[in-house]
Design a protein that fits this description.
Elements: H1 6-18, H2 48-64, H3 81-95
Helix pairs in contact: 2-3
């Protein structure tokens, strides 16, 4: 077989995806500042972004859960960040009862 066959190209592509690039030169560390305490405001009105997220969560809730497991709140009834956080946490807990998937740790050889 020569190197131009589709099979050899596929192998090369797979090999390129599985090998990580070697970093060369200096590594730059980026400092992330701690947000100020006044950044957290549970009584702040929700933004348009949070309103859109609430609509998506409510759609997932109504599409995936039977009526007896639904929270019952509607996005139009949620006005503060605290209410939004509570609703999102409640629905997420029911939709994902086992929590997030844990990544497998690699055994060093």
């Amino acid at each position: 077989m020569n190197d131009t066959t589709p099979n050899s190209n596929d192998k090369a592509r797979r090999r390129a995806r599985t090998t990580s690039p070697q970093l060369q030169g200096e590594v730059t560390f980026i400092r992330i500042p701690v947000p100020p305490l006044e950044a957290m405001n549970k009584n702040r009105p929700i933004s348009d972004l949070i309103k859109a997220q609430l609509k998506h969560i409510q759609h997932a809730e109504s599409a995936r859960l039977p009526k007896e497991l639904r929270d019952g709140r509607l996005p139009k009834d949620i006005h503060t960040e605290a209410e939004a956080a509570s609703y999102i946490a409640t629905v997420t807990r029911v939709l994902h009862p086992k929590g997030r998937k844990r990544s497998r740790t690699r055994k060093s050889s």
